[in-house]
Inverse folding.
């Protein structure tokens, strides 16, 4: 395992997520931003093939140019020692395959919403000249907030080209391969359309259209056999939606939708009840050359010598006009009346069956269910732990609010179980770095460190809160008491400031900012009059030591009253007197965020009378005024 490694001095591998045919996948932290990313590390067998590596670099760079809200975007490509890797957007959620396994069939409205987002991603990729070649539910991620992301753009293209050149078969995706892909022919954008059709078929029916004992058997069905009717598994599926799926699954690429946008538009019209199924697969009239020849009965000629033929009298023109003027208007009126009646009934049925998805995100389950029942919708719920959303609250919904649905359809919601609880591991005795890593593995990011004097090795965990074996949630603080080592504070009283600072440094301690006090005895000027902690005290390594140093007493004194405005962050303040061409700092300190109190700052100098004083906030001049020293 490569956990803990840092790539490009930026991406620290944190958790092993899984592996695919060509890579190992880790969740990593971008040290610069603190955001989670996914790092795919190519397996070693790919590093020895120069053709693959060249293709990998070229296609990965092309994929990195894609930026789309429904694509797991490629962020970076690099090499770290012997490892070649990709850095991708990290998606916290579930694959569409997981959801289908859990739920079985999805309701048509939900399936349409997901398919439209897949097609939106494909349209963007196709416009960039990138064919996915491996669309399947495993590569469609549903984020915890319901957002749909398609993964492995560009990477599937690299793998496909590589395996074809090697004469291999991409077994893992054979259930979603287009006929041209299964037969080894040129693969273009309609191949992704076909695979999307298979995914949509699976969402509606809960199964793939073709199954077999071997990958070859499945591939041959893609090439030759029609898919089983959707009605056999999901009879409630609207005919217009079935027609969209069947057009996407045409064996001939030219008969499918020719763009992802075209298929998405058909899905929208099917969802809204504006698509006639016959539009997508119209019955084509035969061409003259294809039409069957008329059947002609041969009759032998007969003589007419003894036969008389009496022609029928032709109807009078006036009678024909009367029939035409009476019958045709009546038939036309009847047709119009029938169409109006049918239209009124159809509109009434559609209105009575229609429903609008309510907005339930952020509501409690009971409130959300009440809205769903009021809209005539079923409630399908998935529960998962969430660190920041309270238990029983809806995290996401599919379809989105205000989506047009039919009564009886299901609203697919994700509900929070609250923070996940775990048992605190034993951390005492470990070094701080190892203890922190174990906590991070369990999702704990808020760790409070308290250093104390100890003869144990520096960094050893001496105590922990919560205790080992107690339950905790990932969002809570964990306190670790850590050995800071042990060192004796040196004696600094009577020393000059520079000498005292050197003694403190030699003892592995830090010298805090000195405190200056005025003295009348010239022998005490520049020397340490007090120290904290006192000499002989045991302190942790690196602890600060504050020295009080004597300065010459100045005969003239004054005060400055200043009220800095409140701010949303801590700020530094510095007050200085102007002596000739120089500034002499009289006071330095920190103003807490939100504070707006008047400060009374003592001043002293060697000159009596008016003296210029400057006030600086965060290093910038805030105020300049005169003060009187007397």
């Amino acid at each position: 395992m490569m956990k803990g490694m840092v790539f490009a001095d930026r991406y620290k591998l944190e958790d092993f997520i899984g592996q695919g045919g060509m890579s190992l996948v880790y969740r990593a932290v971008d040290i610069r931003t603190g955001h989670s990313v996914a790092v795919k590390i190519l397996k070693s067998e790919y590093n020895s093939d120069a053709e693959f590596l060249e293709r990998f670099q070229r296609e990965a760079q092309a994929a990195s140019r894609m930026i789309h809200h429904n694509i797991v975007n490629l962020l970076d490509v690099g090499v770290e020692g012997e490892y070649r890797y990709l850095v991708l957007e990290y998606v916290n959620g579930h694959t569409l395959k997981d959801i289908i396994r859990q739920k079985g069939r999805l309701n048509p409205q939900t399936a349409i919403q997901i398919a439209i987002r897949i097609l939106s991603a494909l349209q963007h990729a196709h416009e960039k000249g990138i064919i996915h070649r491996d669309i399947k539910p495993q590569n469609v991620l549903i984020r915890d907030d319901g957002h749909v992301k398609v993964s492995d753009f560009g990477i599937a293209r690299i793998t496909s080209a590589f395996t074809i050149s090697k004469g291999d078969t991409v077994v893992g995706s054979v259930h979603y391969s287009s006929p041209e892909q299964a037969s080894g022919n040129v693969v273009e954008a309609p191949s992704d359309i076909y695979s999307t059709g298979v995914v949509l078929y699976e969402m509606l029916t809960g199964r793939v259209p073709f199954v077999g004992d071997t990958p070859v058997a499945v591939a041959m069905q893609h090439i030759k056999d029609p898919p089983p009717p959707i009605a056999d598994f999901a009879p409630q599926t609207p005919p217009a939606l079935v027609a969209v799926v069947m057009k996407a699954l045409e064996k001939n690429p030219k008969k499918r939708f020719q763009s992802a946008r075209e298929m998405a538009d058909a899905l929208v019209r099917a969802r809204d009840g504006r698509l006639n199924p016959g539009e997508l697969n119209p019955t084509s009239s035969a061409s003259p050359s294809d039409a069957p020849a008329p059947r002609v009965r041969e009759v032998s000629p007969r003589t007419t010598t003894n036969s008389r033929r009496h022609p029928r009298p032709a109807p009078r023109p006036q009678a024909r006009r009367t029939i035409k003027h009476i019958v045709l208007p009546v038939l036309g009126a009847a047709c119009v009346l029938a169409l109006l009646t049918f239209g009124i009934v159809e509109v009434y049925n559609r209105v009575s069956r229609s429903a609008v998805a309510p907005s339930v995100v952020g509501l409690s389950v009971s409130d959300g269910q009440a809205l769903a029942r009021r809209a005539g919708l079923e409630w399908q719920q998935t529960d998962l732990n969430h660190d920041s959303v309270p238990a029983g609250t809806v995290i996401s919904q599919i379809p989105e609010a205000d989506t047009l649905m039919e009564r009886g359809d299901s609203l697919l919601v994700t509900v929070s179980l609250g923070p996940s609880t775990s048992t605190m591991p034993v951390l005492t005795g470990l070094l701080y770095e190892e203890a922190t890593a174990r906590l991070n593995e369990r999702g704990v990011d808020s760790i409070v460190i308290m250093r104390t004097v100890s003869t144990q090795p520096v960094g050893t965990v001496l105590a922990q809160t919560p205790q080992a074996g107690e339950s905790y949630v990932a969002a809570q603080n964990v306190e670790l008491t850590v050995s800071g080592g042990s060192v004796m504070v040196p004696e600094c009283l009577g020393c000059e400031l520079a000498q005292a600072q050197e003694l403190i440094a030699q003892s592995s301690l830090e010298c805090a900012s000195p405190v200056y006090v005025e003295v009348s005895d010239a022998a005490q000027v520049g020397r340490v009059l007090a120290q904290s902690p006192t000499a002989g005290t045991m302190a942790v390594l690196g602890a600060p030591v504050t020295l009080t140093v004597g300065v010459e007493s100045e005969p003239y004194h004054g005060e400055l009253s200043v009220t800095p405005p409140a701010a949303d962050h801590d700020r530094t303040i510095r007050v200085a007197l102007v002596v000739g061409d120089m500034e002499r700092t009289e006071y330095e300190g920190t103003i807490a965020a939100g504070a707006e109190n008047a400060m009374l700052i003592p001043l002293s100098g060697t000159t009596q009378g008016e003296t210029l004083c400057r006030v600086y906030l965060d290093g910038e001049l805030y105020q300049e005024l005169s003060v009187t020293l007397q």
